[in-house]
Model the fold of this input.
Amino acid sequence: MWNKLKRYRQLPGSRRLLLWEALFALALARFALIVLPFRRIAAWLGIPATENSLKATAEQLEVATHIGSAVGCLARRVPWDSRCLAQALAAAWMLRRRGLESTLGFGADLGNSREIVAHAWLRFGPYLVTGGSGHERFKIFTKLLRKES
Done:
């Protein structure tokens, strides 16, 4: 516990703020998943079967990397369920706050017990922000992109 607090205090202020933002975003995502029907969440996420460009500047990719790290780090530590969809929603919200559009992908696969297992991941440019590990084994059934007008 002491080492974690010591590491947190050694982070630059901007990274600490990003962790707090990620905590808020994960809580907001979990709350939305509990109280809102999925069609409302999907409408917020955007247009089905579209993707954002694979082009991104180095600065944008760095922002996406930091957001993905912050969300992933806190998702393992919060007391509520923050699996792939909550992480993807939280990171999408954080990227959108910075004017960056991302693509949320949904996939499914038959698990070991022959039950359908679903997974969600978020991609910004060529970078998988959340849900990247093992996403290749899932058959994509939709992607969502919000186009800002």
Summary: The mean pLDDT is 88. Strands lie at 47-48, 103-110, 116-124, 127-130, 139-145. The first strand starts at residue 47 and ends at 48. The first helix runs from residue 2 to 10.
